[in-house]
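Input sequence (209 aa), recorded before submission:
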Amino acid sequence: MSVLPTDPGEQPAVQSDPTVQPVPASVVETVDAADTTLSNPRSAVLSLGSNLGNRLETIQGAVDALEDTPGVRVKAVSAVYETQPWGVDPDSQPSYFNAVIVLRTTLPPSSLLERAQAVEEAFDRVRHERWAARTIDVDIVAYADVVSDDPVLTLPHPRAHERAFVLVPWLDVEPEAELPGRGPVAALLETVTREGIVARPDLELRLPE
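Predicted structure, token format:
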């Protein structure tokens, strides 16, 4: 796979191919084979976003860190989308890069949440106020078909059904995906606006090998 490009204005590395490349069959086979090391894995969907620093590099780092977690295998990585900040004046913060990944994991939801928060801390995520700019945001969108109103980890994510920056990339990697308790992702997308959601085919994330 090609080397990650940097954000505009940063020192460039080797440039990526200007299109999002399909995952090579050999990589898919390797990931599938890795699943044999997991006992009764469950599927989980995570949303990643960043609007501070080198956004693409940070999201890739989060993907790699999750793959390095015992009991976790990253199965799919979406295309990258540039989006307007959620819940604040669009001019008050830099735009986000967003992506969705699909995991197979033997971790229970609580442990997966702990790992997601540890990844955020590793990339200097600061929690001062709601909707604040951040280096990385790692949200558990769904875990298998679990529906829970636990205030520590509500499943599925309570606002996922109304966020195009989650639904659009998720549909990229799972066209038949369903949000537990809400229905098909494709149908949910018909009820929300895609305004401010811009595909970035000049950028790509690697599926860990």
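Checked by second reader. The first strand starts at residue 42 and ends at 50.
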